[in-house]
Amino acid sequence: MTLLRPSTGKIKEYKLTRAQIKVPTVKDINGDRAFPLSDNNVGYIRLVQFGEHTAKDLEDGLRKLESKGAEFDVAWATPLSGLNLSGGVTYAFTNITEFGNSSYLFAPNTADPFLPRLNNRLSFAPLWSGVASATYRAPITSSLEFRASVSEKYNSSYNTGSDLDPRKIQGAYGILNGRIGVAAPDDKWAVEAWGANLADKYYYQVAFDAPYQFNQIDAFLGAPRTFGLTARVKF
Fold first, then answer.
1. pTM of the model
2. In which band, very low, low, confident or very high, does the pLDDT at 67 lie, cut at 50, 70 and 90?
3. Which of 1, 37, 140, 202 gets the most CB atoms within 10 Å of its CB?
4. How far apart are CA 119 and CA 163, in angstroms?
5. Percent of the chain with pLDDT over 70
C-alpha cells in the first residue's frame, strides 16, 4: 500500500498481511475464555454474539466450569418493530452429600428406612427452571401506545418441605401470565388488564406436617387463575 503525506510530500510503502481473526462468541465474566467459578461456586458464561461456532463455544465453556449448575439467558429484539423476546434456562444440581448429625431431622427413605435417602436435593430447588417472555409495544397516536406481554415460568419437580419428605414433592409445572393495555409513551400513565396463572395450574407453595394429625400432610396452594385491571399515574 502506498501513502502520500501531504505535509511532507513524502511517499511511503507499507506491506499489509491478511489474516483470519477469530472472535470468540462466548466469554467468561472477565471477558476471557478461562470460565472460573466465583467464591460461591457460580459460573458465568456470556453469549457475546451468534455465529457459526456459538454452539461449540458454549459447550466448551460449560465443560470448563466444573460446577454443578449452569445458567443461560438470551434476549432478542426481533425485526418486527416493538417486539422483543427473551428467555432463560437454569440447571442447578443441589444435592446434599453429607447430613452429618442432622440426618434425624430429615424424612427417611419411605420404601426402606435402612436404605439411602432417595431425594437429597435442597428444598425449593428444581433441577431445571426456565422462563420465556414476549413483549410488544406499538404507537397508536403520538400520545397513546399499545402494550402487550406474555410470559411462562417453568420449574421441574422439587421438594417443598424442609425435611425433604417425598410426600411434599411438587411435580413439574409452568405458570402462564399475560398483560395488555394502553399507556402514554413517556410512562406517565397506563391502564392494563392482566391475568395470572392463565392455565389455572394447581400447585403447592409449601407442604407441611399437619399439627396434631399423625402422618397427615397439609399444604398452602398457589394462587389460581386470577384477572385484574391496573391503572397507574406518575406525578
1. 0.65
2. very low
3. 37
4. 10
5. 71
Q: Is residue 6 part of a domain?
A: no
Specify the pLDDT at position 84: 93
Mean pLDDT of the chain: 82
Of the two residues 167 and 144, the one the predictor is more confident about is 144
The parent domain of residue 85 ranges over 68-233
3-state SS track over the chain: CEEEECCCCEEEECCCCCCCCCCCCEECCCCCCCCCECCCCCECCEECCCCCCHHHHHHHHHHHHCCCEEEEEEEEECCCCCEEEEEEEEEECCECCCCHHHHHHCCCCCCCCCCCCCCCECCCCCCEEEEEEEEEEEEEECCEEEEEEEEEEEECCEECCCCCCHHHEECCEEEEEEEEEEECCCCCEEEEEEEECCCCCCCEEEEEECCCCCCCEEEEECCCCEEEEEEEECC
